[in-house]
Amino acid sequence: MFAVIKTGGKQYRVAKDDVIVVEKLEGKAGASVTFKDVLMSGDGKAVKLGKALEGLTVTGKIVDHKKGDKVVIFKKRPRNTYRRRRGHRQDETHVKITAISGQK
Which residue, of 2, 18, 42, 45, has the fewest CB within 10 Å? Predict the structure, then answer.
């Protein structure tokens, strides 16, 4: 069984025991997280959308909080000796999906 959830402005296709990387969530490592914004679910034969998903929740466990890969921002104006180099690392959370439950 799989489900499509929405968190952090992005959509993820998840199944039991998957580990996904999402934008930073509140909570410490080992804490439980519930995703109630489920967009779609399926079992390989049938797909459910809309009202058929009422009450469906996806639960997971926070594995770790990390920082993502560095993104380099480089600005340059030719012939003006203007160069700026900056970097950014986004905070992210690793979540292991433990259950997809509440199906009617």
Answer: 45
Query: How far is the C-alpha of 57 from the C-alpha of 102, rounded, in Å?
Result: 6
CA distances to 30, 76, 87, 88 from 70, in Å: 26, 19, 6, 6
For the chain, the average pLDDT equals 92
How far apart CA 59 and CA 17 sit, in angstroms, is 11
pLDDT per position as a tens digit, 64-77: 999 999 999 999 99
The percent of the chain in helix, strand and coil, each rounded to the nearest 5, is 5, 65, 30
Cα R_g (the chain), whole angstroms? 19
* pTM for this model (two decimals): 0.83
H/E segment holding residue 77? strand 57-77
Q: How many residues does the chain have?
A: 104
The answer to whether residues 62 and 95 touch, using CB atoms and an 8 Å cutoff, is yes
Residue 20 has pLDDT above 60, yes or no: yes
